[in-house]
Specification:
Helix content is 62%, strand content 12%. A two-stranded antiparallel sheet has the order 1-2. Helix 2 packs across helix 4, helix 2 crosses helix 5 and helix 3 packs across helix 4.
Length: 124
Amino acid sequence: MRRLFQQRLQNSSLTLAQARALFYVSRFEGVRQVDLADALEIQPMTMARLLDQLADNRLIERVPDPRDRRAYQIRLTEAAAPHLAQIQQVAEQIRDEMLADLNDEQARHFIQTLDGIRNKLLRC
């Protein structure tokens, strides 16, 4: 799915890693940089460079964390909105294609099962 997503996102100025980071920040606005690296399973230094690129393109901003002066929270800028719309559109197209052979009940059950597995893995 990642390879297909990257192929579909070809016309975008974003890399797959940047798209993943933007999407995660959109879901968890204000996430700390270190937590974002952990969630995306990226080394902190790699995450710092990735966020530098997104900041250079004015898609995110780093805001000092009021609870920890050594940490930064990541917030989206308005310029990120069209990129997020494209990411969402590509993701929906791929999901629809992958579920096309299932009826509505089967698709719902499959998604619930995947969600359950993901939730169990998150608790480990």
